[in-house]
Design a protein that fits this description.
Shape: globular
Radius of gyration: 13 Å
Helix content: under 10%
Distance between the termini: 39 Å
Number of strands: 11
Largest sheet: 7 strands, mixed
Number of helices: 0
Structural class: mainly beta
Strand content: over 45%
Order of helices and strands: EEEEEEEEEEE
Low-confidence stretches: none
Length: 127
């Protein structure tokens, strides 16, 4: 099982940017699609973005398309979420996740089967 640790959260004004990082332990990181999810107070956890094991396929929630970019560096066992043009409604705890399946060629929100979760990092966007 992949162990995941997020970092990079914080407080930012609306319109600002943050970059989240997720460091993974274990030798199998590069085989798994990776994703970011978020959970706002009183709401269910929701899909934000995912990237395939090779980085060649990505998928995004409609609410973040054009503002967020997911990427990965397999040599560093790290996945990133660059968040630009942040809005107050982006405020949430952001979780990194590893897909259970190996070598997924095309990632989709529906097809993402979470095998491991990180502990989460808080992102707060002030208006």
């Amino acid at each position: 099982q992949v162990q995941l640790v997020e970092s990079g959260g914080g407080l930012v004004q609306a319109g600002g940017s943050l970059r989240l990082s997720c460091a993974a332990s274990g030798s199998t990181f590069s085989r798994h699609a990776m994703g970011w999810f978020r959970q706002a107070p009183g709401k269910e956890r929701e899909f934000v973005a995912a990237v395939s094991w090779s980085g060649g396929s990505t998928d995004y929630a409609e609410s973040v398309k054009g503002r967020f970019t997911i990427s990965r560096e397999n040599a560093k066992n790290t996945v990133y979420l660059q968040m630009n043009s942040l809005k107050p409604e982006d405020t949430a705890v952001y979780y990194c996740a590893a897909d259970r399946v190996e070598f997924t060629m095309v990632v989709t929100a529906k097809g993402f089967d979470v095998g491991s979760w990180g502990q989460g990092t808080q992102v707060t966007v002030s208006s």
